[in-house]
Amino acid sequence: MTLLLVFAIIEGITEIETDFNFGGVNLQEAELLPREKVFRDPVHNYIHVQYKVILDLIDTPEFQRLRRIHQLGTSMYTFDGAEHSRFSHSLGVYETTREIIENFERNYPTKTPGDGLWDDSQKLVALCAALLHDIGHGPYSHTFEHIFHTNHEAITQEIITSPATAVNKILRQISPEFPQQVASVIDHTYPNPQVVQMISSQIDADRMDYLLRDAYFTGTKYGVFDLTRILRVMRTYKDGIAFDQQGMHAVEDYIVSRFQMYQQVYFHPVSRSMEVILMHLLQRGKELYESGQLEDTQAPKLLIPFFEKDFTLQDYLKLDDGVLNTYFIYWRDYQDDILRDLAGRFLFRRPLKSAQFNDQTKHLIPHLRELVEEAGYDPKYYTAINDSYDLPYDAYTPDSEESKTQIEIMQPDGSLEELSTLSPIVAAITGRETGDERFYFPKEMLQKPSDSIDLFNPVYAEFQQYLRNGALIDPQKE
Amino acid sequence: MTLLLVFAIIEGITEIETDFNFGGVNLQEAELLPREKVFRDPVHNYIHVQYKVILDLIDTPEFQRLRRIHQLGTSMYTFDGAEHSRFSHSLGVYETTREIIENFERNYPTKTPGDGLWDDSQKLVALCAALLHDIGHGPYSHTFEHIFHTNHEAITQEIITSPATAVNKILRQISPEFPQQVASVIDHTYPNPQVVQMISSQIDADRMDYLLRDAYFTGTKYGVFDLTRILRVMRTYKDGIAFDQQGMHAVEDYIVSRFQMYQQVYFHPVSRSMEVILMHLLQRGKELYESGQLEDTQAPKLLIPFFEKDFTLQDYLKLDDGVLNTYFIYWRDYQDDILRDLAGRFLFRRPLKSAQFNDQTKHLIPHLRELVEEAGYDPKYYTAINDSYDLPYDAYTPDSEESKTQIEIMQPDGSLEELSTLSPIVAAITGRETGDERFYFPKEMLQKPSDSIDLFNPVYAEFQQYLRNGALIDPQKE
Amino acid sequence: MTLLLVFAIIEGITEIETDFNFGGVNLQEAELLPREKVFRDPVHNYIHVQYKVILDLIDTPEFQRLRRIHQLGTSMYTFDGAEHSRFSHSLGVYETTREIIENFERNYPTKTPGDGLWDDSQKLVALCAALLHDIGHGPYSHTFEHIFHTNHEAITQEIITSPATAVNKILRQISPEFPQQVASVIDHTYPNPQVVQMISSQIDADRMDYLLRDAYFTGTKYGVFDLTRILRVMRTYKDGIAFDQQGMHAVEDYIVSRFQMYQQVYFHPVSRSMEVILMHLLQRGKELYESGQLEDTQAPKLLIPFFEKDFTLQDYLKLDDGVLNTYFIYWRDYQDDILRDLAGRFLFRRPLKSAQFNDQTKHLIPHLRELVEEAGYDPKYYTAINDSYDLPYDAYTPDSEESKTQIEIMQPDGSLEELSTLSPIVAAITGRETGDERFYFPKEMLQKPSDSIDLFNPVYAEFQQYLRNGALIDPQKE
Amino acid sequence: MTLLLVFAIIEGITEIETDFNFGGVNLQEAELLPREKVFRDPVHNYIHVQYKVILDLIDTPEFQRLRRIHQLGTSMYTFDGAEHSRFSHSLGVYETTREIIENFERNYPTKTPGDGLWDDSQKLVALCAALLHDIGHGPYSHTFEHIFHTNHEAITQEIITSPATAVNKILRQISPEFPQQVASVIDHTYPNPQVVQMISSQIDADRMDYLLRDAYFTGTKYGVFDLTRILRVMRTYKDGIAFDQQGMHAVEDYIVSRFQMYQQVYFHPVSRSMEVILMHLLQRGKELYESGQLEDTQAPKLLIPFFEKDFTLQDYLKLDDGVLNTYFIYWRDYQDDILRDLAGRFLFRRPLKSAQFNDQTKHLIPHLRELVEEAGYDPKYYTAINDSYDLPYDAYTPDSEESKTQIEIMQPDGSLEELSTLSPIVAAITGRETGDERFYFPKEMLQKPSDSIDLFNPVYAEFQQYLRNGALIDPQKE
To answer: What's the predicted TM-score (pTM) here?
Structure first.
């Protein structure tokens, strides 16, 4: 709080007595490891650690816990290789930031305060913020948050600033204000725009790492762009980071890759279907608990504080994907049909099916839900609309209000031009609508009526009249 | 013939009318999917599924459970990217086998029985065996087996042949004998040597997939060899599978890659250290349970049948890596110091340190264990020797007794030559000793005595006299 | 023969005079090699040859000559790795075609004539056409053609159909009509649309190979797309080749890659600059020859038939990039200043500089040429406008008149939809103007006037007023 | 010391007070480019140039000429992709050296003279030597040298030190002694061992670049090793360059890769066969010239100084692969049967066939040559033994006399251990014999006698009795 005040003052004063050196850490004082330590990484080849504080942060329980939280949530049910964790992504964001700074140190070192060049006293705060930017994530992030009203960004701030954590203790060894400085980078209130943009902007270390990493582990080739080149053409200026015009094509390619990854990986209908099931499963568990129907032996001990809306940071830090899955295994033996069935659909990957709809066909959905109900499925748990809570698409929309959405290309004479004015292909996909609205329903609705003497055959047959080529159609109008 | 009889007895049948067709499935009768289904895979690009039985097997709870068991166990603590599961490896072995067969179908189709060429009625049994060869694996395989005396190979056989499983039910739809045929491929008793060697030999689909996959996910480059080329030069002969002499260099490179992966990945000292901790942690938990000291709330519900040495297949199938980790999280709150501490070391990756020893320095270990004890650590739980239970190295040893250890190169005139007689580099590494014996101890023993006024400073100082360049030395003899 | 009749009727003709033996080659009669032969290839890993006719064609002098003609002409002066030849590209187009056909053979074999499926009697004509489609290329193709009025497409036809060539002799061994059939595939008059589209359409074996190959050798990553996936989703239909909707994203990615390769590689201003120099150099040589000023010892023996506009096919087949370069080396010793200087600029890579212009700045060019002349350079040889003779961009323009410009996506119900109606990103770049008009001038015009006491300093200074950020500007209007 | 003296005399100095700083260039004085310039490169992604002297050297006629000389000579006839030139390899060696130095500058900067750390005044001499180390190569190097008794190493020295070259002129701008310093690095007489070993030792920038580059362009995977890792673990010491023990496996993998590249690429029998043909062709041309039988119009103008053993550096610099090929095209029209035929075999890739022989079968060769003669081929031109003039294998032989053959691994305590004492796999291949002796003969000797009524059928039949599985055999002894 005090700190925020300080910022406000800094922004509104004409005289600054105090050390312009806000947020800075004298690197001479930061303890170097006796020997650089490396972690092998399939995306960056090696992660290089030179400072003791970085190694100590990696070794905290809060950070190690990220090994047990998948980076892409339910996408691993569509892309089998995508079993990587937030741990390796966090290391990757750190390494990317380290490489950006290495370039800035060498080529754009500040000479006089305010010259828009790189001030090396910012190095440590940037590296720590990069490493810790996702540390507040919990299991199946957005879905979990939706059900339990947690907020991973607030928890990230808390892990960094609360004196109870190992992370905070290590950061404090740098200086008493250091934890708050790191936290302020992550929530964008840190005064140095270069540091903020490194971690969070249209081309930041976070996005660059996750695109390359997710492309690598899913095995899709769309996400690949030329990281080395982009790092090389990044340059500082007064208000942040720009890209030398010589590297414009690499930047352009990054935007195209991102567009394709969203279209083809992050928004994949089957991953979203598994998310629907997970959401309904947690919802059902919560409702049963609230109505006193979860018996003791099936009670998900570590989830109870969340069911009861009364949890501590320590409760939160005990959770991971495996813990939730363990409770789902418990629930497979539970007597509630819906809980048991949904747990099985999630654990053993039995996604709902889906069909696209649009404004012309949206009105059909209530009737389709009735048919699902007629076929014996509670539509509350077995149908859904859209539901892409995870990973909302951040399109490149340079005309948006948000300051972070401009990519600036630096011309030979030093002037800046916004990317989409220079690149036809970026202009083409800029701000483009990428919606894919879907109605989800049980696969069973698609069984061939003729295949069996099932009681529900006429229901299936009617339902299927509303589908063609993966979309809803109105059979009356054909 | 004897073999068939043995099976017959196992199955409890006394009469066998016909048998030549053992193992064969008329492909005309196997149900094809209306449309080939593909799974994206980063190693093989795509996994292609044409038969309904394969898709149904993938969709079983027993197989989906492999998603929750890491392929490389504790190696993910050394190579952060190695978070892949046995699920994707199993698909990869299936795909590799499918590609081998595709080549055989096209280029070496049998014309008359016994001509040593490929008989397509063997296709389905080979594909199913490839897919299911690892289905009996449990969490942290070899370590778990060591403590609880389970056996994943026996469980694989049981999952395939027990009428209680979904896997068995699907296999039986092909024919009543089909489950047993698939199981016999996996335990090497199936009569067609080509099918057996595809799944299990010096160059089989299993090894080829895991080397490439583990290289990909660890990010090491050593494991890469030319799979496409090897598949292309594989050819059938009467006693199994040989390799055309045109592709000898690719086969050679595979042997070298395997050697390097063992040396540099599978035997990595830090992974083995994490395994030591896991072993001691489970051991401690078991002992506490047996002595009645594990209270109810910390009791690992799903592990109890194993503590009590009385478990069913269904109990086994509920376990996975996440379940064990969940109990380790529980144990972090337990009152037993050792259990609590070891659980933290495992969950938060705090490996023991190690030093190599040899016959000359082995005698120092008892004294070093005493020093560890003096420093306050129970040597039973905080020291270890070697302990590479997981992944014993299968060196290429062509002169071994086991029949599967020969790699045959087919010469232009059709004669066969064993690989190491043709390749100097393979001869060089053939059967080479690859031992790496290590003594493990707590990292705390390495702290600089001068750093603190720790009570144990003299102990640390003495201990450290016995170490140099990562190995034990005898300070008396220097 | 029956077959021919059927097609004739389909095509709406009732009489067939000529035996235009459409309908291909009975594969049973084509001679298979005793053993498949492979060529190692960095793009496709291996090129696989099964038919003797293919191997014999590769071994002809006409085809081997392609080793001595660079695939990308002057692009190798911008992208140093791009030193690959038309030889390896031709093998790559053959291999891609072979893989397309392998897929068609397996999945879409014809059952009844006219069913729109793949007729394997078309295989050999398709393979030969793929291999030979570029065989008429000469050195520095488009530039050479521009100066000497040759036509590589006509020469391709001649090499295939003239009885004087080794290529023709080999093709004739298949059947007397076979050479003409192969030639007709290449000039799009062959009646089977699947065969024609394989070799020449929006997604054909030619384009797919050159994008991947040029991306590989230039080291740019933009050109990479998922060939395996595209091959897998290709399917035959009555009017040609369509793409299964499951693979739409791979097709989309191919279109994006192509767009980027044109923007970033094929249209690179420096490559075009080297082409300008080459053009002017050949032009100067020709003019000197025509005016009798090329002395005997510098006379380019093998070029004389072209200077004299009286050349035979045999004369043409003696030319390659090295022959032209050899004459340029001769010309370095010649007395004509311009010839000597331009030869050096080409041999030792001293490109002209360039600036973009547009309709608003085009009027400045005459004055700039005057300034170049004032500085001592003949503007006829030392300036140029645009001049991208090589590699005109083939944008994806589905609404064009040409039949080959549609990419059809096959929906689950078998209906076809044109790609850009389904893909926002393809719609965005479809038919987009990609012009980049440039004015080329000697680098010397950019020297800093202050650097020397050069006589021409005021000229340079004035010239440079017209340039900013790589484009022409009108200094009056700023 | 003697050495220093020699230099001193060359330079015309009689007294040397101090010498430690020999060869150094004050980097402050070297002109930096206003902006770093990059060249795209498929192996290193980008080549980065910061100094004007480097860019100027690249732009010299002597260096640009390397574009027209293939890196791998006749290997491109076996591996079609291997069409890369000495130009891109030279840039790659420069870039690798630049990266080595970048690491040294950052991590091992000298503090006091003689401390064994990196002295940055050595940077420019190392970079220039790296760039220019191959500049004396001519067309088809070793073969050409064998026939014409040229020496590319002497010519490299001459290009660098002769005042007549552009290269020398640019180097002299640094300092009058600079050309000689650069030359002395290349001939190993330069006093700073770190600089010498960077360019020439068991793991130098030259070897590392060519292995990766040749692997990339041939498309073989064997040559790939982890360059980034090796660069990272390189460290200076008093007597040169060592490798940190943490990176031993990367070094080991490099040795294995090199072994495999020699076995599988550089020694490939077909490439050697094409070299035999080239050698005999040049030999024949020379003999005809010497006996006055090469008429004027077929006279290879630029080769005549070499036929006459009286050539200047300028004569040498006019030659390239294309010039030689142009003369071979001329010779295709010549009346000498052997010259004409050999020229065709070379231009159109018609290699001789070969068979391995050993001490037991060597005695058969004279008789086989007689049979070749009986079949109508002059054995002097149509047979050969072995003939691997190009690319003699440099095996890793640490016990050799030559000082450069040790690879030193630096242990944690700073002591050095020779690689093969630590690595079983390197020990295994160390100094291993890799000979592959072959007898070359015309392919025509292998034609099936039954295929024709050829006069020579009995000769072919007898010849073929001596061959089995690619080796000579003695039919008497079978």
So the answer is: 0.90
* One domain for residues C247 and C303: no
Are A391 and A143 a contacting pair, CB within 8 Å?
Answer: no
Cβ neighbours for C364, distance < 8 A, ≥ 6 positions apart: C357, C466, C472, C474
Question: Average pLDDT, stretch D127-153?
Answer: 95
Q: Are residue A197 and residue A276 in the same domain, yes or no?
A: no
**pLDDT value, residue D6:** 29
CB contacts, 8 Å: D468 with chain B:
413
Binary contact (C320, D325; C-beta < 8 A): yes
Q: How far is B412 from chain C (nearest CA, A)?
A: 10
Helix (H) or strand (E) holding B234: strand B234-237
Q: How far apart are CA C345 and CA C77, in angstroms?
A: 12
Distances (CA, A) of A252 to A21, B342, C387: 35, 50, 26
Percent of chain D, pLDDT > 90?
A: 70
Tokens of D39: 């060249």
Contacts C263 to A, Cβ<8 Å: 249, 425
Three-state SS for C239-299 is CEEEEEHHHHHHHHHHHHHHHHHHHHHHCCHHHHHHHHHHHHHHHHHHHHHHCCCCCHHHC
Are both D47 and D83 inside the same structural domain?
A: yes
Burial class (CB in 10 A: 0-12, 13-18, 19+), D440: buried
Which residues make beta-bridge pairs with B385? Answer: B439
Distance CA D478, CA D474 (A): 7
Around C342, how many Cα atoms within 13 Å sit in the side-chain half-sphere? 25
Residue D446: what pLDDT? 93
A289 and A224 both lie in a single domain: no
pLDDT value, residue A16: 33
DSSP symbol at A400: S
In-domain check, residue B250: yes
In chain B, the residue whose alpha carbon lies closest to the alpha carbon of D415 is B469
- Is residue B38 located within the same domain as residue B182? yes
What is the CB neighbour count within 10 angstroms for residue A176?
9
At C55, list the tokens: 């191997």
Please enumerate in sequence order all residues whose Cβ is within 8 A of that of C380, keeping only pairs 6 or more positions apart, or say none: C280
Domain that holds residue D133: 2-267+396-429
Strand B467-468 to B471-472 pairing: antiparallel
Per CB-CB distance under 8 Å, the chain B contacts of D253 are 221-222, 260
D38 interaction partners in chain A (CB closer than 8 Å): 232, 246
pLDDT given at position B10? 31
CB contact under 8 A, B322 and A349: no
Query: Which is nearest to C195 in space by CA: C133, C135, C241, C136?
Result: C241
CA distances (Å), origin C42, targets B120, B190, C47, D87, D221: 33, 40, 10, 20, 9
Mutate to test the interface with A, among C425, C436, C446 (most CBs of A within 10 A): C425
**Is A405 inside a domain boundary?**
no
Which chains have 3+ CB pairs within 8 A of B?
Answer: A, C, D
- Residues of chain A whose pLDDT is less than 70? 1-24, 28-29, 223, 297-298, 387-395, 397, 399-405, 431-435, 449-454, 478
Number of domains in chain D: 3
**Do C257 and C280 belong to one domain?**
no
Same domain, B339 and B215: no
Question: Are the CB atoms for A352 and A273 separated by under 8 Å?
Answer: yes
pLDDT in tens, C78-103: 999 999 999 999 999 999 999 999 99
B285 and B260 in a single domain? The answer is no
**How many angstroms separate the CA atoms of A289 and A305, rounded?**
11
Q: How far is residue A356 from each of residues A260, A350, A365, A387, A466, measured CA to CA in Å? A: 19, 19, 11, 13, 11
Which strand (E) or helix (H) includes residue B410? strand B408-410
Report whether pLDDT(D411) > 70.
yes
